[in-house]
Amino acid sequence: MNAVNKAAPGDAAPLKFRSLGGWVERPADLQPSLEGHVKADVIVVGAGFAGLSTALELRALGAQVILLEQEFAGFGASGRNAGYLLGSMGIEYDMFVKRLGVEQATQFVRFYDEAVPYVEGRMKALGIDCDYNPSGVLRAGVHASQEKRLRENMALGQKLGAVTRFVDGAEMRARGIPPAFLFAAEQCGGTLNPGKYVAGLRRAAIEAGVKLYERTPLLSFSEGPVITCKTAHGSAAAPVMVLATNAYTPQLGVLRNKVAAIRVSAIETQPLSPQQLAAVGWHGREGIITPHYTMESHRLTAHGTMVLTVKKLGYAYGSKTPNIPDQGAYAALAQVLRERHPALHGLGIQHCWSGYVSGAYDFLPVIGAMGEQQNILYTTGCSGHGLGTQSYVGSLFAAQINGKTPELLTAMQHKTPSMLPEPLQWCAIHSAFAAAKLLDDWTDRKVRKHNASKG
Ligand SMILES: Cc1cc2nc3c(=O)[nH]c(=O)nc-3n(C[C@H](O)[C@H](O)[C@H](O)COP(=O)(O)OP(=O)(O)OC[C@H]3O[C@@H](n4cnc5c(N)ncnc54)[C@H](O)[C@@H]3O)c2cc1C
What we know:
InterPro entries: FAD-dep_OxRdtase. By secondary structure, the chain is of the alpha/beta class. Helix content is 33%, strand content 23%.
């Protein structure tokens, strides 16, 4: 499944594209695909963090659960992400306040921040060893001009209940953070191996008795008091369905006007030598993201490599999700690696990959119920920050299906703006990417100029 990709500028060897991402392989114990007709209390579609977590929480309440997955559990973004378990700090608080007002924005911040201890608790309860390092996460500026916006965003977050602190330059240097990162806002959380986390959820779900059908795409479903899901060789029926298909949801013909599938890319370096690790410092191995409009993420892994993500996003016409390389994005990330980590001069890139997240125009999660009976629950619109929240939503859905009314689910109801029809949507999203790139290029040029002036 690997293909050789064109070399990024400055890289001697060609980059190897991993179509399944850098963390997972197809499981050796692939679960059978669905044959014939089956029934349950709940059908969950999509086995990423959201689907697995929902299925597990429902099983714990005694429900019979069918989980349909088109490939294998962890095939989507859950097996391809950067592994940052991060609360609300990854979001732009001012956008949330403008759209929702202070009171409701506070509830969204609560949702993001409560998700961190929830996942930490689940890893312990389910015995999932996924190399979690509770180092905290730094949102770190690379140029002085980013400080004002970072501080303002942080102060607003604190007003909304987020627990963050400013880390000044002296502390950054004392902690051995790579010198490209000048100052930061810090929040609790950390980094983990998302492949191990999602595989742990999969194992726990199978052991708990969730009927997981892999290589079983949902093709269509009929609504009503009982929902019937059609697959290639069978069907499943239940009074409740949960759509946990995230970026793939528009392809089901659902929520097409609410979310778009956005491609996010990653590169992973060769393992750092002991000398390279010593040169980098970074003793706490904190996850680092930047306040660029299209952010960068930089982290070390437990197996001694460095993973960098984002910098350049992609959108395919009609919210399609082709599993193909994005050479421009890998080249941009390779350049980021060289510029932010000059101490690692010559460090090779092992491979690269891409995955899909879903985003609404207002960047807010899109969580709710639909159908005449309101018995189809959905969660999408993760906007690239779903490791915590897409896991946490499983516990809220399970409580709701069990007849409770989770306060947070109610508080997060809001009107998601409608997406434009194609080709206007393609134009709008690509224009937004271009505008973000202009602003980020401007910052990066200032950094280069500053570094050049230092010699
Ligand atoms: C490169 C990258 C870096 C990221 N970094 C981070 C990070 O560091 N921290 C963070 O919080 N978030 C990060 N994210 C986002 C995060 O990965 C997602 O928010 C999260 O994984 C979403 O989980 P999910 O279960 O909702 O969706 P997914 O993991 O995408 O799961 C959806 C599942 O549905 C299945 N499916 C789709 N259609 C069908 C169908 N018709 N029938 C059956 N099954 C179907 C898919 O195969 C897939 O397995 C990143 C994403 C990417 C791509």
